[in-house]
Amino acid sequence: MKYPLCAAACVAAVVTTLGLAPAMADSPRDFLRNAIKGDNSEIMLGRLGERRAETPATRSFAQTLVADHTRARYEALRLAAQLHMTPPRGPQREASDARKRLGSLSGWAFDAEFARYMVQDHQKDIAKFRQEANAGRGATSALAQRQLPTLRKHLNMALRLDARLAGYVQRQP
Asked: What superfamily does domain 26-171 belong to in CATH?
């Protein structure tokens, strides 16, 4: 072939444009930064849920989020220190947006939206943590593997809560 580099670049561009290339995993440091931001987000939203929840089940779920993600954040911060990383302080942008949206709701509407958001958020988190756990990249993969059961527990709690609240909210006039 006369222009091998050009051909390779064209193939790469087509594959990427068509979405055929496998998703590139974040670096271990990026994963850890995002995990800490995720913990910050869950703690922030959990505290909001503790204060604003209408139902005892939603309040209990919010308390579980705060407790579990505080422990997870502590573990991630220890790993960040070992890697000589400065950890992020704030939440993820999506969580900040959710906080604003949730802050405008009250009663059953708050509980239903809180549960719905937590289902979607934990589904995404589990996918990212599973990818990192399977990457075999040392300490960050081990951290992801250890935290997956807790994320699955949160997803199951959120799914049950969402189903319960959806049935109630649909019956309201």
From this structure: Ferritin, core subunit, four-helix bundle (1.20.1260.10)
